[in-house]
C-alpha cells in the first residue's frame, strides 16, 4: 500500500487515541461522567454521535452495494431510517432526557427499573441481559468488518485487522468513556459525510464525454432509476419498516440522555437529520454512480459491497484514498465503541452496583466500567475469530430484535402513564419471541420480522397493562 495512504490512516488512528486521552483528563472522575459525560454534551456532538453510532459500515458498504445491484428501489430502507430517526428525536429524545435525569438513571435498564418502581429488579435484569448478550455479538460483527477491511483493502491478515481495530477502539473507550466515544463519533461522522459526498462527485467528473451516469443506468435497466422498480408494496413496507427499530436501539437513544439540556434537542435534531440526509444521499449516489462508472468502463466487480472502496482505489490520490478508507473505519469503529460502552455500562450499573457492591465509590465504579469494556471486547474478539461462524448470523436480525424488544417498551414507558411493570415485561418478551419465531419460520422474506414483532409487543403491553390495576404516578428517583 502507498505510504501516503498509510500516513492518512495512521493519522486517523492517532487522532482517535488523542481524543481518548483528552477525554480521560477531562471527564472520567465519577460514574456519571464516565458513562454519560455528566449529561453535558452539546447539540452538534450529540447529533453526530447518534448518527455515526447508528450507521456503521452499512452506510459505506451495504447500502451502496444494494443500490449498485438493484437501483433506487433499495433506497426505501434509507427513507424509512430517516423518518424513524426523525420520530426518535421528536418522541423519545426530550422525554428520555428529562425522565432519566429525574429518575437518576444512567442506563436504559436502570431507567426502566426506576420508571416502574421494580423492587424485584426483574425488568432491569432482563433488559440488561438482552443488551449484554446481543451487543457482545453485535460488537463482534463490527470487529469482523474491521478485520475484513484490513484484509481486502490493506493487504494485511484478517487477524491483524481484528487486533488493530479492537485495540484502538478499546483504548479510547477505556481511557475517555462516554465523552471519548461521543467526540470520536463526531469526528467520524464528519469524515463519513465528506467521503460520501466527495467520491460520487469525483466519479461523475471522470465520466467519458458524451455519456452520463443516468443514460448508462437506463441502458442497464430503466427500473434502476425508479423507487418502485422491481419491488412490491410489501417489499416497500418491509424496507421502510427499518425505521421502527430506532426506538429500541440502546446505543443510539443513550445519546439523548447525555445532551446538556432539553432545550438543545431541537438544534441537535436539525443537525442530526441534516447529516443523515446528506450521508444517505451520498451513499445512494455512490451505488448509482459506481454502477454507471464501472459499466461504462467495462469493469464489472465481483462484490457490489466493495464499490465504495474500488471507486476510491481507481479515482483518488493515495492520500485521499487513505481518507476514504479512514471513513470506512470510522463507520465501523463508531458503532463498536458505542456498543462496548453501553454493554460495559450495563454490567457496571445493572449488575455490579446492584448486586455486588451497592456502596461502591465513584472511582471504583469507573474502574469496573473500564474493566467491563475490556471484558466485553475480549468476548467479542473470541466470537470474531471465525468470520463465518454461525453465531454471527444472529447479527443480521439484531436490529429487529432490539427494535421489537425495546422499542414499544421505551415509547410507551415515556408516553403512557397507564403502562405497568407487567406490561413492560410482556412487551419485551413478546417482541423478542415474535422476531425469533418469525425468522425461524422463514417468513422474513415476505415481511421484515420487525413489523410483526413491534406490533405484537405493542399489543402485549397495552393488553397486560389494562388488565392490571392502574399504577400510581411515575416513580421519582
TrEMBL record:
UniProt catalytic activity: L-proline(in) + Na(+)(in) = L-proline(out) + Na(+)(out)
InterPro entries assigned to the protein according to its UniProt record, in alphabetical order: Na/Glc_symporter_sf, Na/Pro_symporter, Na/solute_symporter, Na/solute_symporter_CS, Sodium:Solute_Symporter
GO molecular function: L-proline transmembrane transporter activity; proline:sodium symporter activity; sodium ion binding
Protein name: Sodium/proline symporter
Matches recorded under Pfam families: SSF
Described function: Catalyzes the sodium-dependent uptake of extracellular L-proline.
Keywords on record: Amino-acid transport, Cell inner membrane, Cell membrane, Ion transport, Membrane, Sodium, Sodium transport, Symport, Transmembrane, Transmembrane helix, Transport
Topological category with respect to the lipid bilayer: Multi-pass membrane protein
Family named by the database record: Belongs to the sodium:solute symporter (SSF) (TC 2.A.21) family.
Record GO cellular component, one term: plasma membrane
Compartment(s) of residence: Cell inner membrane; Cell membrane
Domain of life: Bacteria
Swiss-Prot/TrEMBL GO biological process terms: proline transport
Record field: transmembrane: 6-24, 75-93, 122-141, 161-183, 190-207, 227-247, 268-294, 314-344, 365-384, 390-414, 421-441, 447-468
Amino acid at each position: 500500500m502507498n505510504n501516503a495512504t498509510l500516513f492518512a490512516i495512521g493519522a486517523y488512528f492517532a487522532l482517535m487515541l488523542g481524543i481518548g486521552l483528552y477525554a480521560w483528563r477531562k471527564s472520567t472522575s465519577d460514574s456519571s461522567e464516565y458513562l454519560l459525560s455528566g449529561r453535558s454534551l452539546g447539540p452538534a456532538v450529540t447529533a453526530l454521535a447518534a448518527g455515526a453510532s447508528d450507521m456503521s459500515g452499512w452506510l459505506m458498504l451495504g447500502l451502496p452495494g444494494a443500490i449498485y445491484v438493484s437501483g433506487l428501489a433499495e433506497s426505501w430502507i434509507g427513507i424509512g431510517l430517516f423518518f424513524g430517526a426523525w420520530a426518535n428525536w421528536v418522541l423519545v429524545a426530550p422525554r428520555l432526557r428529562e425522565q432519566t435525569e429525574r429518575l437518576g438513571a444512567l442506563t436504559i435498564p436502570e431507567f426502566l427499573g426506576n420508571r416502574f418502581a421494580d423492587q424485584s429488579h426483574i425488568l432491569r435484569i432482563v433488559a440488561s441481559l438482552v443488551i449484554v448478550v446481543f451487543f457482545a455479538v453485535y460488537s463482534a460483527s463490527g470487529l469482523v468488518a474491521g478485520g475484513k477491511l484490513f484484509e481486502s483493502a490493506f493487504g494485511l491478515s484478517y487477524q491483524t485487522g481484528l487486533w488493530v481495530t479492537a485495540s484502538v477502539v478499546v483504548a479510547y473507550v477505556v481511557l475517555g468513556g462516554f465523552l471519548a466515544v461521543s467526540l470520536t463519533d463526531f469526528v467520524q461522522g464528519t469524515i463519513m459525510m465528506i467521503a460520501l459526498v466527495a467520491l460520487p462527485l469525483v466519479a461523475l467528473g471522470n465520466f467519458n464525454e458524451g455519456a452520463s451516469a443516468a443514460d448508462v443506468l437506463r441502458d442497464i435497466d430503466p427500473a434502476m432509476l425508479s423507487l418502485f422498480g422491481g419491488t412490491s408494496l410489501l417489499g416497500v413496507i418491509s424496507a421502510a419498516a427499518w425505521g421502527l427499530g430506532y426506538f429500541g436501539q440502546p446505543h443510539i437513544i443513550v445519546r439523548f440522555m447525555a445532551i446538556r439540556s432539553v432545550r438543545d434537542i431541537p438544534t441537535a435534531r436539525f443537525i442530526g437529520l441534516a447529516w443523515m440526509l446528506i450521508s444517505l444521499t451520498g451513499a445512494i449516489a455512490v451505488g448509482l454512480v459506481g454502477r454507471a462508472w464501472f459499466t461504462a468502463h467495462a469493469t464489472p466487480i465481483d462484490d457490489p459491497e466493495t464499490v465504495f472502496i474500488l471507486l476510491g482505489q481507481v479515482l483518488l490520490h493515495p492520500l485521499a484514498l487513505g481518507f476514504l478508507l479512514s471513513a470506512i473505519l470510522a463507520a465501523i469503529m463508531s458503532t463498536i465503541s458505542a456498543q462496548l460502552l453501553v454493554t460495559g455500562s450495563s454490567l457496571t450499573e445493572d449488575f455490579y452496583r446492584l448486586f455486588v457492591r451497592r456502596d461502591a465509590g465513584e472511582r471504583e465504579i469507573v474502574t469496573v466500567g473500564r474493566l467491563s469494556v475490556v471484558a466485553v471486547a475480549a468476548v467479542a474478539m473470541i466470537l470474531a475469530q471465525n468470520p463465518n461462524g454461525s453465531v454471527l448470523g444472529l447479527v443480521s436480525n439484531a436490529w429487529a430484535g432490539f427494535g421489537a424488544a425495546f422499542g414499544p417498551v421505551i415509547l410507551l414507558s415515556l408516553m403512557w402513564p397507564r403502562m405497568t411493570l407487567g406490561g413492560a415485561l410482556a412487551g419485551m418478551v413478546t417482541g423478542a419471541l415474535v422476531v425469533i419465531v418469525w425468522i425461524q419460520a422463514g417468513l422474513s422474506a415476505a415481511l421484515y420480522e420487525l413489523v410483526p414483532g413491534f406490533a405484537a409487543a405493542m399489543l402485549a403491553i397495552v393488553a397486560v397493562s389494562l388488565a392490571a390495576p392502574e399504577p400510581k404516578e411515575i416513580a421519582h428517583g
